[in-house]
Predict the structure of Ail/Lom family protein.
Amino acid sequence: MKKIVFSALLASGLLCGMSVRADMNTFSVGYAQSKIQDLKRLGGVNIQYRYEWDSALSLIGSFSYLSGDADASSPIENDVIRNHADSKYYSFLIGPAYRITPMISAYALLGAAHVKTDVSSEWFNFENSRGLVSQGTQKRTFTSNAFAYGAGIIINPINNLSVNLGYEGTQADINGDHAINGFTIGMGYRF
């Protein structure tokens, strides 16, 4: 029993010995890219804020904004349907970060994502003398709010510099379920 208590105290002492300086803040900005399953790639920005206190554990928040559009045409016999989709993705995630070494941390995030996709479809009818003639346009908007998650690593090559690389994902209902998976990469300043 004494050995178990001693081992637990020793392990907790080692974990506490990995603590960082009190009250460190990191603000980073970077690039984010995601792909909507069966649709288009989205590109945008990711902003992260990390608050570290006198512990190996810290708190991190992440906001992403991505947008993109896509065009596709579908022939039906002599007619053509032209589709255009414009998508916007927003997410806010928060979670713990753990400092593994003085230079490397890992983090996990949970939160919410909002996806809005505007779709317009135009039908062109083939007429012998006039070619393709528009028969009208239909427009629809799909919005989805969903649970989102992420994970990644943070590297501090020098004390005031932060480089992060992460994954972000969700499942959105855009006229059916579509997985959205992507990555973030950013650089920040620790102060």
User: Anything to note?
Assistant: Helices lie at 2-16. DSSP finds one helix and eight strands in the chain.
